[in-house]
Model the fold of this input.
Amino acid sequence: MSSDSPRTPTDAPETDAKETLRGIWESDRLRVCYSRQLEVIYEGTWFHWITNRALRDLAEEGFLKMEPRTLANGGRLHLYWHKTNRYPRRAADRVARLVEDYSADEVSEALGNRGEQLVLEGLATRQFVLHGRSTRTFRGQAWTRTAHNLDFIVERDAIPYGVEVKNSLDYIDGDELDLKMDLCAHLGVKPVFVVRAMPRTWTHDVIQRGGFVLILRYQLYPPLLKDLVGRIRAELGLPVDHPKSLSTGTMDRFVNWHEKHVL
Done:
């Protein structure tokens, strides 16, 4: 499953994205943003890769200036500002510092652990039984095609599920999504993906494979990082939160789907 789509001579969504992005910079020429930020903010309207291509096109046309930065963890950041902005450096540095803070290895590890903890606790309160964590074996079956595994396998009412948690701003990698569904099929478990967001077409693919996608909408931080959450919200406008547990409504969506499949 590709994380991008072929460019066509008349790509209406990309044209719409370009015009919208052009408009926000025309109304605020001092704005400095980075690509992932805008991809997430506008994901209700366009896929991430459409917003990304629109930004690159606007930079190639000279409407925006683009500056790449390398983060301390080796990641890449692409900053954008209006071509008439003569003094973008202070704002660009502030954005880059905040991205460095939330992209630090220790924060990324904490986010991964927090996402799994919240999901596992939520499943436990709904009587799902844990069969394994970070596992690629189940009831005599073993996945050997690659070294990948599932975050955990749970079961209720004799229906086992292979659960993958992606507590991040970006989408799960499309090839990884396909592979994890193959892994679940091999082990004889239904695939469940718990993610902040996922393209609708990918969600449809999971449903076609007998699985479920639980959309969280927010990237979930540990409560100890609530100050960082506040900065990300205020300065970048990104969907982040630090809940003590998953909401009842969130868990209800999965439990209701599960109960419809109980024979």
